[in-house]
Design goal:
Structural class: mainly alpha
Number of strands: 0
Radius of gyration: 21 Å
Helix content: over 70%
Shape: extended
Length: 147
């Protein structure tokens, strides 16, 4: 069957769903903003209980990681991500989700090989690249003596 470029384009346009960029952008902004607002609320809450700013930020990070891990385990985080898209990739919550998701998926293969081995399938490259980038950044600073 020979199909011209124009016929192929018409078939592809017919089979492809319409774009929802505006809707996706709105939900990513709202949900991502809500996650960030929750983070700021937690910082303020921890400050009210007498923590220093540095400690309040650390406790907020711990709380956001724990909350996103629990929501991932309960399959709630993925449902939120269906609507929010990139809004749920706020670095700390998205990273926790990327570690817990493969662990949950491969739980049936055992705790060591399944959960332990697959936990860093997605997050592993992020760790490697971030460590490599920090070393390169440090060498550039050292070489040019920027500090």
């Amino acid at each position: 069957m020979n199909v011209t470029k124009e016929e192929y384009k018409q078939m592809a346009d017919k089979a492809s769903p319409g774009s929802t960029y505006g809707k996706n952008l709105f939900f990513a902004f709202v949900i991502g903003g809500a996650i960030c607002t929750l983070g700021q609320f937690l910082v303020n809450l921890f400050l009210q209980y007498g923590n220093e700013l540095k400690d309040a930020r650390a406790w907020t990070s711990i709380a956001l990681i724990g909350l996103s891990a629990i929501l991932t385990a309960l399959n709630v985080y993925d449902n939120i991500a269906k609507y929010a898209g990139a809004g749920t990739i706020v670095p700390i919550t998205g990273f926790a989700n990327s570690i817990v998701s493969p662990a949950m998926e491969f739980k049936s293969e055992g705790y060591i090989i399944g959960m332990g081995g697959k936990m860093f399938v997605i997050a592993g490259p992020v760790l490697v690249y971030s460590a490599t980038a920090s070393i390169i950044y440090g060498l550039i600073i050292w070489f040019f003596k920027l500090y």
